Give the backbone structure.
Amino acid sequence: MDLMEKNLELVEIQKLEGHTDRVWSVAWNPVSSHADGVSPILASCSGDSTVRIWEQSSLSRSWTCKTVLEETHTRTVRSCAWSPSGQLLATASFDGTTGIWKNYGSEFDCISTLEGHENEVKSVSWNASGSHLATCSRDKSVWIWEVLEGNEYDCAAVLTGHTQDVKMVQWHPTMDVLFSCSYDNTIKVWWSEDDDGEYQCVQTLGESNNGHSSTVWSISFNAAGDKMVTCSDDLTLKIWGTDIARMQSGEDYAPWIHLCTLSGYHDRTIYSAHWSRDDIIASGAGDNAIRLFVDSKDDSVDGPSYNLLLRKNKAHENDVNSVQWSPGEGNRLLASASDDGMVKIWQLATKP
Amino acid sequence: MVTGLINENPIIYPKKERRLRTDTSTTDEDIKDPEHPNTLEDLRVVTEDSVEVDDENSYVRVTFTPTVEHCSMATVIGLCVRVKLLRSLPSRYKIDIRVAPGSHATEDALNKQLNDKERVAAALENPNLVEMVDECLPSEE
């Protein structure tokens, strides 16, 4: 399908009200989608120190808050992430801990609390197999945790190298390569050459290699895992690429190179970028707007270029902190979270 | 904490005649300096001209001038100004806070820190910092 030829719009399906402070982040449960006959589930976390679990009714199609995870974190819950099985939810908090919640369907129990960071934990990410977690903090470090039997979590590595707060960690979608981005304007790539868990920083993408010139807020990968998008306080989005076949063959580390920079689309800090399974990049920013981009398919000698597919001004009444595409195939939903305390569900639809 | 004042002898300027404001009323002038009994206006850290308000575009920019180049209180002053604006302005406003060009030794680092909303949010969850900020702000009527 040629997206550029379609007259597309982002239709607001529902506004999810409940949080009493800014909403920092949203995460779709990876195993729930209409395609599987299971209702979609979304988690959102907030400055009100809680996490809310939202579910769409398969009958009425309307979203309701199923449960509120509270009284565990004492400060802002900055980010949350579902394990690949959808059975566990990890929550990173400014209280310095990471909570692990077990999903019993109708209720959630906090089964583990990961302690170790000196101060605010800002992001948490599961690797593709669900065997490891990564967390990062204002203490400038990135921690890798191994998931053991009996709800035990063991710190497998403490990675240092960033010179300032680490804003986000993200595992590669298929391989055990970890990415982190920071207030120090760089993206670092962590990899264990010998599979022995000795993670090293194998690459730093900074301003000198066409990287960002201010805080890098988020990282997202395309489905194939050979491209990555990053967004920044420098008001740009950057697309990076690698030779994924070389890495998958186990030959050696294939470096990431800058492919292109998308600038001039947002007026204030871009907090979130997310790449959908069908190759649409969504971005959310401090200008209250959401933008969608697609590959223009006319690669020049300079590499690929991306076109603006759609602009949604005033998507929220305040900063957009997080945009996330639903994992389901075909049913293209986007969730967004904002400083206005709202979570919104959007559908990408053809204009009537 | 601070032993001895960073600026022992600040210049105190005469108060300006307060003119009636027709735009969104901001009262940054009444914020107290973290280490002196004077207000930021008395010390000309913040002046009326240093506050730009673009009501139509819901935008406010405050440029403040620390009294000394190495003022370690600059982050607290910046935080006070931000909290004051957050409490007085409708939430639709975007707020940028900066130190005047050339007025501080670590200008870029300071500007970056003052405008990182995640750092500001974390700072405002710190009871000691909030207490410090509250002491600088006039009691809300």
